Amino acid sequence: MELKQFKITVLPLRDKLLNYARRLTEDPSDAEDAVQEVMLKLWNQRHKLDEYRNVEAVAMTMTHHLCMDMWRSRRPDAIPLEQIQTTATTGTPERLLEEKDACKLMQEIINSLPTLQRMIIRMKDIEEYETEEIAEITGCNAEAIRSNLSRARKKVRDIYLHAIQERKRRNDI
User: Is the pLDDT of residue 67 over 60?
Assistant: First the structure.
């Protein structure tokens, strides 16, 4: 794609990309930065853009991914479960150790989930985001959020119960 074709095809997408980035980042300067970077990436890949059927879709996807990366870099990837868990201060040392082990196991299980499920379960169950907010951040629709959340919870529950049963079996031996 030459300069003239790039100006005709890609540059008019800038406003649409900027509006989309503003909704994802909620910060006009971050949105501007994201779109600027996407435009630069598109320019650097201009010779390959003819291979795509829909350059607009490529640009929107690049914008989405870049905004998600910006969002992740600003927010901690996970709030440590130790901070969230309210441990009884009057518990016995054995009980406190059991709770700490359970918390660590839960954290490992959540970290083993696929990226989207891990992100959704953290946002919904740990950080207490609403489904609509998660949908806006991830770019998924609300039904996909609910479906992924259900799968993630089921997977966490199954792995946790299996690990507990395995631990009991080892202790019985």
Answer: yes
> Whole-model pTM above 0.70?
no
Q: Where are the beta strands (DSSP E) in the chain?
A: none
pLDDT at 87 (0 to 100): 44
pLDDT of residue 81 exceeding 60:
no
* Mean pLDDT to the nearest integer, 29-56: 89
Q: Which amino acid is at 114?
A: P
**Which of 7-16, 73-82, 126-135, 137-146 has the weakest average pLDDT?**
73-82
Q: Which of 144, 106, 143, 141 is nearest to 125 (CA)?
A: 106
Tell me the C-alpha distance between 50 and 121, whole Å: 39
Q: Which of 133, 132, 122 is nearest to 76 (CA)?
A: 122
- Shortest CA distance to 133 belongs to which of 17, 57, 23? 23
pLDDT tens digits, 125-134: 887 888 888 8
CA 68 to the chain's CA centroid: 7
Cα–Cα distance, 24 to 4 (Å, whole number): 30
Measured distance CA(171)–CA(173) in Å, rounded = 5
Q: Which among 31, 39, 51, 37 has a CA at the least distance from the CA of 7? A: 39
- Ranges of H-type helices in 10-141: 14-25, 28-44, 55-74, 81-84, 93-111, 115-121, 131-138
Structure tokens at 104: 């660590």
